[in-house]
Structures are given as structure tokens and as C-alpha cells.
Amino acid sequence: MDFGSINPDTWYMVAKYTGAALAVGIAAFGSAYGEGFTASKAAEAIARQPRASNEIVRTMLITQAVAETAGIFGLLASIILLFVAPTSGGMTQAVALFASGLCMGVGAIGAGVGSGQAGGMACESIGRFPRLSSSILLTTLVGQAIVQTGCIFALVVSMLLSITLPPADNIVTMGAMLGAGWAMGFGAIGAGISTGFTAKQAIWGMSRNARIGGVLTRTMLLGQAVAHAGAIYSLIVAFLLIFGKKG
Amino acid sequence: MAVEGVHLIDMARYLGAGLCMGMGALGPGLGEGYAAGKACEGIARSPEHAPLLTRTMLVGQAVS
Fold first, then answer.
1. ipTM of this predicted structure
2. Which CATH number belongs to the domain containing residue B9 in this structure?
3. What is the pTM of this model?
């Protein structure tokens, strides 16, 4: 097989389509896993407490919708790659498009799984204590929203990689673009999954001890903010790699 | 474009920085959130120890 005769523009299109596929495909995995977990917890809760099934199903659908936003960000990044990114360019931009897709896809895994954990615990708790459903749901939505911020970082880096032109067309910039995409993508996984666990335990606490709801929510937000530190460092490194001057 | 050895080294530097940050943020990210979750659970079980639990959580997260 002789790859030397292939037009460079073809590689650009290959990278573009591969990136678009990765962005939505891997992101869909994350949000689907999370939503499935939520559904399983809802089924468990309904089995334990059939009379509360309306409340439980309502909670499940709402929390699944929030978990789905990770997949929607992936779809958005994919559409940007397919229709908004330039239709032809050099090899460096091709690598940047691939990195953009990788970044969004992988970055959405954590947020989807984490939101699902929180949603699952919400369904379980509302099954046990239906009277507390409004405060539990509020805590869940706040916690899930913070979980999604890691995914938003990944979306920002993904858009930067796909829309802005690389500063130079050489192999050094290729490495920097791929590094930036990888950094933000994998940096967001850990923060997403663990902030979801934080929200899950805060919801558990809210259901057992609703009087101290304020303290619990504050602790949850504090813990989630610190847990996002790794993702923020990844964001900074990604910015430096994309915009920094490379000699 | 003619690729020279020094270019490859520079590329590897930037790629390595990205790989390192990405994989390096995975572990602490997982751990810090777990610590925060257990702190929330602990506060729910015994609210009178909330300041101590929060302090312990922050110290543990800082180390991680």
C-alpha cells in the first residue's frame, strides 16, 4: 500500500470525520452509562416502594435530562467539527481537529457517569422519603450542574481546537495540539466521576438529615470546587499548549 | 515541510506535557471527589463535627 500518493486534503477530511465521530460517540457512552445507572436505581426504589413510583419516575427523568447534557455537548462539538470548522487545511489543523474530537468525547465520560451517580441516589432517596422530594431534587440539580462544568471545560477546549487556526504549520504545533486535547479530555474524567460521587453522598445526607441541608450543600459545593482543581490545571495547560509561543 | 530531529524533540515535549497533565489529573480528580463525598456523609451522620470534618476533607484534598 502506498500512502504517499494520497492528497493532504484527504487526511484533513479523515481527521475531521474521525474527530466528529469521537466527540459524540464517546460522549454518548458517558451519558448513557450515567442515565442507565439512574434508571437502575429508580427501578430498585420503585420495587421497594411502589406507591412512590410517580415521584421516582419524575425524579429519574429530570436527573437523566441533566446527565444527557454531557452527550449534548458532545453532539454540539461534533456538529461544529463537521459544519463550522474549515473544509480544508494543513496537517497541523487536521491533528487539531482530531484532538478537538478526542478532547470532547473523553471529557464527557466523567460528567455523564458522575451525573448518573447523583441521579441514582436521588431516585433512591426520594423512594425512601417522598416528603423530602423538593429539597432532595434541588440538591441533586445543583450537584449535577457542578458536575457538568468539567464537561464545559472540555467543550471550550474542543471549540478552540476546531475553530481557531493553529499558529504555525509544523510538527511541533501538531504535538502541542494533540497534547492539549489529550490533557483536557482525560483531565475532565476524574473530576466528573468524583464530583458526581460527592453529590451522591450529599443527597444521601440530605435525605437522612434534612435539617442541616444548608451545611450539606455548602460542603458539597466546597468539595466539588476543590475536586475540580485538577480539571482547571488541565484547562490551563491546554490553553498554554494552544496559544503559547513555540520556538 | 522538512522534519528535523530538533522538531521531533520539541513536538515530543509539548505532546508529553499534554499527556502528563491529562493522565495526572485523572487520579487526584477521582480521589478528591471521593473525599468530599465521604465528608458530606460524615456531616450528615454527625452534624456537630462539621467543622472538623470539613477541615479534614480540605487537608486530605490538598495532599491529594
1. 0.86
2. 1.20.20.10
3. 0.90
